[in-house]
Amino acid sequence: MEKEMQQNKKPLKIRIAEFLKKKEIEISPKRYFVDAMGAMANGLFASLLIGTIIATLGQQLQLSILVDIGNFAKGVAGPAMAVAIAFALKAPPLVLFSMLAVGTAANSLGGAGGPLAVLVIAILSTELGKLVSKETKIDILVTPFVTICTGVLLSMWLAPYIGKGASAVGSVIMWATDMRPFAMGILVSVIVGIALTLPISSAAICAALSLTGLAGGAAVAGCSAQMIGFAVMSYRENKIGGLISQGLGTSMLQMGNIVKNPRIWIPPILTSAITGPIATCLFHMEMNGEAIASGMGTCGLVGQIGVYTGWLNEIAEGARTSITWFDWLGMLLICFLLPAVLTWAFGLICRRIGWIREGDLKL
Fold first, then answer.
1. Which of 85, 137, 250, 261 has the most CB atoms in a 10 Å sphere around its CB?
2. How far apart are CA 147 and CA 121, in angstroms?
3. CB atoms < 10 A from the CB of 9, how many?
4. What's the CA gap between 194 and 200, in Å, rounded?
């Protein structure tokens, strides 16, 4: 009783802060734009993206069982994203499990912008669910009721508008890239490439904006420039392990070194500014597979598999008759050879003028 009286004497602001801390609710850009977006990308990868890869493999090998497995995986993209976001926000079990329904509603009602709708609504409903979690004696009823009802109602009210907004932004970017492939090739390649290396999710951004077509191709070029570029440029420090972990994993591993010496970022950024317009203007490389693959670069070769899947889709739709040697040459140059050679060359110049020192790229 005395403890409760002392608690009530505290200023309201302090009491609210203590309550939010107890509920593990941290209102910050890092929590929502880094942790949540990164988790959303993982959820997308573990459902839509891997499902697309498995289904494509099944189509090529003519194994219907793999096609079925891939389709099942793709079908749970919404729930997978929502659960991943809730997990990143440290949701208690009942809130976490309730996000299956919320993710399904948000992704379905969000249309082409479903991933962005899931991100926004999953964050809101997770935090609301955490507020009521374990606050009543009938928690097993109250927590899922509040989480699911708020999440689905928010999906019904907001998801269509969020979806239309995200789709409109993505459409403008793709339209601008079609109209101005050189300038927009540079812009999209550099920005998405930078996002890939930053502790945010380029894959989630591309998925949220449904970034495909020439703009998607430029995004693949920018991401590949960062990953292959850092892998090759840092080979003298990190050897084969660093080559694989960055080239097929993520250039985000260099973020700590970038903070210490931002100039190490110059070579891959310059490379992306070159490979982006080459992709859009010379090879007309498009991403007509899943939009999330636009922001994956060479991570598990997902970006390249996405481009290849797009080629297959175009053949099936009659938009192209075959995959030519020029298509393969473009992918090889844009995603692998040019990033390796150009970033190495720019890096060598930076080393010689003292902008990059020995050990600056050590993981």
1. 85
2. 11
3. 8
4. 10
Judgement on whether residues 198 and 301 belong to the same structural domain of the protein: yes
> Per the domain annotation, does 18 fall within a domain?
no
The pTM (predicted TM-score) of the whole model is 0.76
Q: Which residues contact 316 (CB under 8 A, 6 or more apart)?
A: none
Query: Are 159 and 222 within one domain?
Result: no
Name the one residue in this structure whose structure tokens are 């020029």: 326
Angle formed at CA 98 by CA 94 and CA 101, multiple of 5 degrees: 170
Cα 204 to Cα 28, 35, 196, 340: the distances in Å are 19, 12, 10, 25
What type of residue is 124?
A: L
- Residue 78, class by beta-carbon neighbours within 10 Å (0-12 exposed, 13-18 middle, 19+ buried)? buried
Are 203 and 313 in a shared domain?
Answer: yes
DSSP string for 132-153: HTTSSTTHHHHHHHHHHHHHHH
Helix (H, G, I), strand (E, B) or coil at 56: helix
275 and 130 in a common domain: no
* Residue 258, both tokens: 């970038």
Q: Rounded to whole angstroms, what are the CA distances from 144 to 50, 132, 212? A: 29, 10, 36
Based on the fold, state whether residues 218 and 77 are members of the same structural domain.
no
Indicate the number of domains in the chain. Answer: 2
Distance of CA 295 to the CA centre of its chain: 6
CB count within 10 Å of CB 19 equals 11
pLDDT single digits (tens) 71-128 = 999 899 999 999 999 999 999 999 999 999 999 999 999 887 788 899 999 999 999 9
* Exposed / middle / buried, residue 159 (Cβ in 10 Å: 0-12, 13-18, 19+): buried
The candidate with the shortest Cα–Cα distance to 294, out of 325, 335, 266, 354, is: 335
Q: Report residue 229 as tokens.
A: 């570029």
